[in-house]
């Protein structure tokens, strides 16, 4: 993902270094040669250059560049005129940001040529032109890449925001879908219960009446009883139906579902899978079960993908004000766990009910969810 | 103010007995041992041939040559041999260039020209000392030049030097200087520990947690160590001057400048390396550099300028700069080399400090 | 008032999050305990609070001010007692305290007075001129504290201040932590010794893998695990004990008699203390008591249950 950054700052430093090497080389072969003074001066010049590059504030940078120029002028006057070749680079650095149009800089960079001895005219002209071309192109490039980068940054931020939004709304949709289902089921069972209650009450009234008529009107009584039997039969049938419709719900929720999940996992991945629990599981609410299931599924997937484990255990423990659910394997683990998307998903789901997810890689992978529980 | 506090804290180190012993007793003992044991190396009998100088008489009647010989006999320059040369200047210079002679003095009635081999700067300063004393007597001016080996172009400056006192270093005089500069270089080792010691003692945590900046800590520590070392060096100088009667010359402020610049050089070298090289390796690197510099810089014995391996490498030891500058200063009254050496020392110091400062800013912690 | 507030504080080293969106508030006057195994993020958190390392994400507010923007203010109001001894062995005890207090801008007679106070406070007045290299481990630890408190910080962070010292010095330190707290400093305390934390701290946060996994008073933390405690009473003979009388005592949940072992096990609400009444009940029934043992979850149990690891062996 990370693109290689080309830092214009570094390039201009390298350019200066090249210039410096060229000048030093020329001085070395010249008559005067490299003297101690020259070495000391160059060291000082390098220090000054570094100083102006380290400074963060633009004013200090410019002051540094100005100082370098003055220093170089002094040196070229005192030590060796070759050193004047270093002037154009620094001039550009000093004047570049101040001038709107690049052309005058070239003039400025060329100006010192008049003060130099004739032998140096050609070299100076060449260096100044090359410096001008290189630095102008470089600064144009810098501006452009700065602009690109800021656009890119903004786009990335926007993308991240949208992605997060999408993720959130999908999560929300899933949760509400599920809640809707639960509510629907509640409503259904409530209704059925109401109806059974209703029919049972009807049967009861019929039987009460039959009891009263038992002595006086046996035929009427028998008829009422038959009616009651009929209603009761219907009721039983309704109860059966209710039970039938309740059954899948029970399987879908809670520890039974977890068991199913574990069995399924063991069967498909040939991994020894163990499910244990302690405490009063009834206190776990459907929403909590839902989150635990999703996270356990995710954790099992991670185990298959990364852990190289042969056994995995799922443990659910209901404490007094907290549920602790953990999935741990006997695999390789990792000394420092780096969160992937799956983990972030687990964290977000769990955070929705105020819980925490902890991943430990010290003894195999262990994913632990801690979900707060309203105290009983 | 905070810088001052940190500097003062650094200064409290002087109560450390180990440090005191190392910084004071070691050099004083070393000077004594080397100065007396190796004194034979500086005696006349052995030194014959040490400094061989050609001279030619350009006066019409040869009067200068005669005066010169007389002067030499009177002044008793035991370990210098002056040979009269009859050939041309170019031939004489050839002899100087290939190292068979330390220099060539052309005696003109109008003034003396002295051509020295640039490798034997200590010898040069001694010879020019003698020449100038002679010139002084004969009211002549002396023009000296130190031509490059490649191009024997006479220099553009004319110097007049007056010399008092002895013209050449006795063993004690030499080692007083050499051991002092060596001990200064050893302070690079303590400087390498400067920041690291705060880290290992965990006091770096306290310093960073207090409301002072990293820069203040950094500068304060450097200033403190600098002052501490300067104090030690001053004491060593005084001890050698008054106890051993070592010659530190007349221009004490200049001698001080060179020594101080070397202290700055050593401290920033140690500090810079401790930032560049990580962990314990930095200590080893610093010690290696110190040892090499001492060996090639003439701290243990005087490097003869005879073109062998050691003398070839000698100019690259930072101690050589300082030692030669000091010798020039003490025995030749020359300030040129001293200023160059100080500038070089300070230049390297500035570069190293900058590097350290940059690395420190990037780092978490000190 | 919140002395310290951490808001989604995060410290990343590369991709690895050493501290992960940590949110925490420490109120004025608290002794706040930070519990966590090695690598849980305690030290990283403390280092960020003390501005020793930069923050990757999130905010720290000290006395309502963001420390990233008010560095000097924050540093001046925090005193840190590092886990490792951080003193100069080649300076006297007094010079140590004076030097560090001086960094906080104290001057002249004021500086002298504060430094002496801090030494007196840690019981080192008579060691004024001694060098720490001649000190015992406990005395060094006390000096370590003295160096952090002379500037009277609002918040004192103590990172394992009692590691490896004799019981006497340890008691001294625990008492001085309490005294500092009474004198108005808020304290953040970390320790491997669970008993210390249990004894000292008014509120505790348990850290694991850079997150706060539980936070609250001791009672709140313990109630995560269970809301009852067990009392086991060994008696000479349990035969003929009427358990109904005991069950009627308010707060008693269950009473079980083990005839073979001659013991009575009673579980009660965690927050009530009704041991007296239970014993009275037994005595009224003329039953001879041999021993009484009350057990309720310790912080150690809480820690072990939630993190799956013991604090000590980690």
UniProtKB/TrEMBL annotation, chain B:
<feature type="transmembrane region" description="Helical">
    <location>
        <begin position="174"/>
        <end position="196"/>
    </location>
</feature>
<keyword id="KW-0812">Transmembrane</keyword>
<protein>
    <submittedName>
        <fullName>ABC transporter permease</fullName>
    </submittedName>
</protein>
<feature type="transmembrane region" description="Helical">
    <location>
        <begin position="20"/>
        <end position="42"/>
    </location>
</feature>
<dbReference type="Pfam" id="PF12698">
    <property type="entry name" value="ABC2_membrane_3"/>
</dbReference>
<keyword id="KW-1133">Transmembrane helix</keyword>
<dbReference type="InterPro" id="IPR051449">
    <property type="entry name" value="ABC-2_transporter_component"/>
</dbReference>
<feature type="transmembrane region" description="Helical">
    <location>
        <begin position="337"/>
        <end position="360"/>
    </location>
</feature>
<feature type="transmembrane region" description="Helical">
    <location>
        <begin position="284"/>
        <end position="303"/>
    </location>
</feature>
<keyword id="KW-0472">Membrane</keyword>
<dbReference type="GO" id="GO:0140359">
    <property type="term" value="F:ABC-type transporter activity"/>
</dbReference>
<keyword id="KW-1003">Cell membrane</keyword>
<feature type="domain" description="ABC-2 type transporter transmembrane">
    <location>
        <begin position="18"/>
        <end position="356"/>
    </location>
</feature>
<dbReference type="InterPro" id="IPR013525">
    <property type="entry name" value="ABC2_TM"/>
</dbReference>
<dbReference type="GO" id="GO:0005886">
    <property type="term" value="C:plasma membrane"/>
</dbReference>
<feature type="transmembrane region" description="Helical">
    <location>
        <begin position="254"/>
        <end position="277"/>
    </location>
</feature>
<feature type="transmembrane region" description="Helical">
    <location>
        <begin position="217"/>
        <end position="239"/>
    </location>
</feature>
TrEMBL record, chain C:
<keyword id="KW-0813">Transport</keyword>
<dbReference type="Pfam" id="PF00005">
    <property type="entry name" value="ABC_tran"/>
</dbReference>
<dbReference type="InterPro" id="IPR003439">
    <property type="entry name" value="ABC_transporter-like_ATP-bd"/>
</dbReference>
<keyword id="KW-0067">ATP-binding</keyword>
<dbReference type="InterPro" id="IPR017871">
    <property type="entry name" value="ABC_transporter-like_CS"/>
</dbReference>
<protein>
    <submittedName>
        <fullName>ABC transporter ATP-binding protein</fullName>
    </submittedName>
</protein>
<dbReference type="InterPro" id="IPR027417">
    <property type="entry name" value="P-loop_NTPase"/>
</dbReference>
<dbReference type="GO" id="GO:0005524">
    <property type="term" value="F:ATP binding"/>
</dbReference>
<dbReference type="InterPro" id="IPR025302">
    <property type="entry name" value="DrrA1/2-like_C"/>
</dbReference>
<keyword id="KW-0547">Nucleotide-binding</keyword>
<feature type="domain" description="ABC transporter">
    <location>
        <begin position="4"/>
        <end position="234"/>
    </location>
</feature>
<dbReference type="Pfam" id="PF13732">
    <property type="entry name" value="DrrA1-3_C"/>
</dbReference>
<dbReference type="InterPro" id="IPR003593">
    <property type="entry name" value="AAA+_ATPase"/>
</dbReference>
<dbReference type="GO" id="GO:0016887">
    <property type="term" value="F:ATP hydrolysis activity"/>
</dbReference>
């Amino acid at each position: 993902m990370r693109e290689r950054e080309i830092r214009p700052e570094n390039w201009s430093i390298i350019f200066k270094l090249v210039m410096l090497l060229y000048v030093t080389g020329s001085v070395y072969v010249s008559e005067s040669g490299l003297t101690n003074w020259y070495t000391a001066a160059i060291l000082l010049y390098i220090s000054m250059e570094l100083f102006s590059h380290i400074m963060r504030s633009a004013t200090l940078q410019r002051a540094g560049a100005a100082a370098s120029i003055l220093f170089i002028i002094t040196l070229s006057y005192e030590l060796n005129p070759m050193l004047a070749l270093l002037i154009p680079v620094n001039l550009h650095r000093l004047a570049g940001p101040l001038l709107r149009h690049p052309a005058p800089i070239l003039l400025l960079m060329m100006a010192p040529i008049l003060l130099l001895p004739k032998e140096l005219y050609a070299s100076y002209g060449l260096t100044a032109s090359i410096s001008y071309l290189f630095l102008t192109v470089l600064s144009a490039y810098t501006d452009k890449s700065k602009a690109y980068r800021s656009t890119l940054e903004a786009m990335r931020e926007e993308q991240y925001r949208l992605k997060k939004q999408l993720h959130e709304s999908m999560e929300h949709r899933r949760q509400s879908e599920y809640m809707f289902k639960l509510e629907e089921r509640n409503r259904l069972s409530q209704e059925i219960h109401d109806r059974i209650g209703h029919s049972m009450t009807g049967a009861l009234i019929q039987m009460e009446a039959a009891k009263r008529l038992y002595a006086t009107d046996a035929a009427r009584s028998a008829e009422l009883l038959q009616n009651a039997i009929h209603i009761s039969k219907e009721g039983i049938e309704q109860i059966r139906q209710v039970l039938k419709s309740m059954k899948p719900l029970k399987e879908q929720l809670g520890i039974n579902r977890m068991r199913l999940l574990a069995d399924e996992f063991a069967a498909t991945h040939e991994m020894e899978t163990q499910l244990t629990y302690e405490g009063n599981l009834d206190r776990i609410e459907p929403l909590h079960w839902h989150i635990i299931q999703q996270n356990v599924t995710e954790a099992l997937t991670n185990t298959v993908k990364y852990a190289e484990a042969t056994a995995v255990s799922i443990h659910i423990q209901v404490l007094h004000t907290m549920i602790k659910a953990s999935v741990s394997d006997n695999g390789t683990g990792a000394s420092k766990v780096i969160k992937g998307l799956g983990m972030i998903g687990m964290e977000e789901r769990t955070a929705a009910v105020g819980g925490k997810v902890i991943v430990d890689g010290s003894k195999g992978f262990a994913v632990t969810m801690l979900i707060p529980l309203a105290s009983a | 103010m905070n810088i001052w506090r940190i500097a003062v804290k650094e200064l409290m180190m002087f109560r450390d007995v180990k440090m005191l012993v190392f910084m004071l007793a070691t050099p004083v003992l070393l000077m004594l041992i080397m100065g007396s044991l190796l004194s034979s190396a500086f005696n006349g009998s052995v030194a014959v041939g040490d400094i061989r100088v050609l001279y030619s008489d350009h006066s019409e009647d040869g009067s200068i040559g005669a005066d010169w010989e007389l002067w030499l006999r009177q002044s008793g320059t035991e370990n210098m041999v002056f040979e009269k040369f009859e050939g041309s200047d170019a031939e004489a210079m050839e002899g100087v260039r290939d190292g068979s002679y330390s220099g060539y003095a052309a005696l003109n009635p109008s003034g003396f020209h002295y051509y020295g081999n640039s490798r034997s700067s200590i010898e040069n300063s001694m010879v020019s000392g003698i020449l100038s004393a002679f010139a002084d007597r004969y009211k002549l001016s002396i023009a000296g030049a130190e031509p490059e080996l490649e191009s024997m172009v006479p220099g553009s400056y004319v110097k007049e030097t007056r010399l008092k006192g002895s013209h050449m270093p006795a063993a004690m005089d030499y080692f007083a200087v050499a051991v002092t500069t060596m001990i200064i270089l050893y302070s690079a080792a303590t400087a390498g520990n400067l920041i690291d010691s705060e880290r290992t003692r965990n006091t770096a945590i306290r310093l960073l947690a207090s409301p002072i900046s990293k820069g203040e800590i950094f500068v304060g520590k450097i200033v403190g160590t600098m002052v501490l070392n300067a104090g030690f060096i001053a004491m060593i100088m005084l001890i050698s001057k008054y106890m051993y009667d070592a010659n530190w010359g007349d221009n004490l402020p200049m001698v001080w400048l060179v020594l101080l610049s070397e202290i700055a050089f050593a401290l920033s070298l140690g500090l810079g390396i401790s930032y560049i090289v990580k962990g314990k390796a930095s200590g080893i690197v610093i010690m290696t550099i110190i040892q090499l510099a001492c060996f090639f810089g003439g701290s243990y014995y005087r490097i003869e300028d005879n073109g062998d391996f050691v003398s070839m490498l000698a100019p690259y030891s930072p101690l050589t700069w300082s030692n030669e500058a000091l010798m020039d200063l003490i025995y030749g009254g020359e300030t040129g080399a001293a200023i160059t050496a100080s500038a070089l020392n300070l230049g390297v110091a500035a570069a190293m400090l900058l590097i350290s400062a940059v690395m420190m800013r990037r780092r978490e912690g000190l | 008032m919140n002395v310290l507030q951490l808001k989604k504080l995060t410290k990343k080293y590369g991709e690895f999050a050493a501290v992960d969106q940590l949110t925490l508030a420490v109120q004025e006057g608290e002794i706040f305990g930070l519990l966590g195994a090695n690598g849980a993020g305690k030290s990283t958190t403390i280092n960020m609070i003390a501005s020793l390392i930069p923050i990757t994400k999130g905010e720290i507010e000290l006395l309502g001010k963001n420390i990233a923007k008010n560095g000097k203010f924050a540093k001046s109001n925090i005193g840190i007692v590092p886990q490792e001894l951080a003193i100069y062995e080649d300076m006297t005890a007094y010079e140590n305290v004076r030097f560090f207090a001086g960094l906080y801008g104290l001057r002249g007679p004021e500086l002298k007075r504060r430094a002496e106070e801090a030494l007196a406070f840690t019981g080192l007045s008579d060691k004024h001129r001694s060098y720490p290299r001649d000190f015992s481990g406990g005395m060094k630890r006390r000096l370590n504290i003295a160096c952090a408190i002379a500037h009277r910080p609002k918040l004192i962070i103590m990172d394992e201040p009692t590691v490896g010292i004799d019981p006497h010095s340890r008691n001294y330190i625990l008492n001085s932590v309490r005294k500092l707290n009474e004198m108005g400093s808020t304290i953040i305390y970390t320790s491997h010794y669970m008993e210390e934390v249990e004894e000292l701290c008014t509120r505790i946060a348990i850290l694991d893998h850079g997150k706060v996994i539980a936070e609250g008073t001791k009672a709140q933390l313990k109630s995560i695990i269970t809301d009852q405690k067990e009392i086991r009473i060994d008696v000479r003979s349990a035969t003929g004990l009427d358990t109904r009388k005991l069950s009627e005592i308010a707060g008693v949940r269950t009473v079980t008699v083990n005839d073979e072992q001659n013991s009575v096990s009673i579980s009660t609400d965690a927050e009530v203390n009704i041991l007296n009444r239970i014993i009275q009940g037994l005595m009224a029934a003329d039953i001879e008591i041999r021993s009484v043992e009350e057990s309720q979850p310790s912080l150690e149990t809480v820690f072990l249950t939630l993190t799956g690891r013991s604090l000590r062996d980690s």
